[in-house]
Amino acid sequence: MKKNILVLGSSGQLGHHLCQYLTKEKYKVFKFDILDGKKYDLRVSNNYSLVNYIKKSHYVFFLAFDVGGSRYLKKYQNSSKFILNNLSIMANTFELLAKYKKPFLFASSQMSNMSYSNYGVLKLLGEKASSSINGNSVKFWNVYGVEKNLEKSHVITDFILMALKNKKIKILTNGEESRDFLHADDCSRGLKIIMKNHDKFKHKKKELHLTTGKFTKILDIAKLVQDIAGEDNIKVKIIKGKKRDILQKDKKNKYNYYLSRFWEPKIKIDLGIKEIYQYYKLNS
């Protein structure tokens, strides 16, 4: 008998991919996202809907967070609203997960050791809370895929939409910073493996990282989008900014390869971007 799975943040960049994947794998998936209405607001203490879903679930993916791409973080992460939103989300959710003793996975970030980032500090708090109760945490680096909420879109989506709408890609920085990009479908497979090995990973107390271990410059991402658009005879101009990236301050974290014993990514970055390009070409 397949388990009931609750996905908090089910309409997010990763959440909707994970829901689709788990449904195909024949799990019963409960979706929970503020975009679906006020009753799905995790900032509300003792949220009746959340209590009901947690009680019915065998496992919970805690993906919900007030977050977006670098453009969103640069604008909002130092605001009191951003900080308090995420503190409320975590406090209310962790309290109920602890009360009902549900195994869960908290979505953290490789930025959790970057104390100059409020986003990173908040994710670190989430990791510590998870380890104190029946939760594991996993560090994401840069998961990409089709996005529904374009206000919080990430760099690959931004570049594709710029190319399709304006035939120009404007990079916020000089484009020289490198990122490790993982397709949301590969990430979803990894999340299922973590779920199935929850107790083993909890006991081992190893850091769990889901990423490819391969870095690509932001400028090269823009060039990939430019080449893909060129196949449609769309000439796209790339406009670089002058400033270096200040969000991560060029900090290069080391990838923990422990999960590579159980999982490996399959989707190459050029093919992943091409798939997303085709989606927005048809739907934007």
Return the average pLDDT rounded to an integer.
Answer: 94
Query: How many strands, which pairing sense, and closed or not: the largest β-sheet?
Result: 6 strands, parallel
Q: Unreliable segments (pLDDT under 50, ≥5 consecutive)?
A: none
Distance between the termini: 40 Å
Give the CATH superfamily of the domain at 4-147 and 181-213 and 254-266. Answer: NAD(P)-binding Rossmann-like Domain
Q: What global shape is seen?
A: globular
Radius of gyration: 19 Å
Order of helices and strands: EHEHEHHEHEEHEEEHHEEHEH
What's the level 1 CATH class of the domain at 4-147 and 181-213 and 254-266? Alpha Beta
Helix tally equals: 10
Strand order of the largest sheet: 2-1-3-4-5-10
Give me the secondary-structure category. alpha/beta
How many β-strand stretches?
A: 12
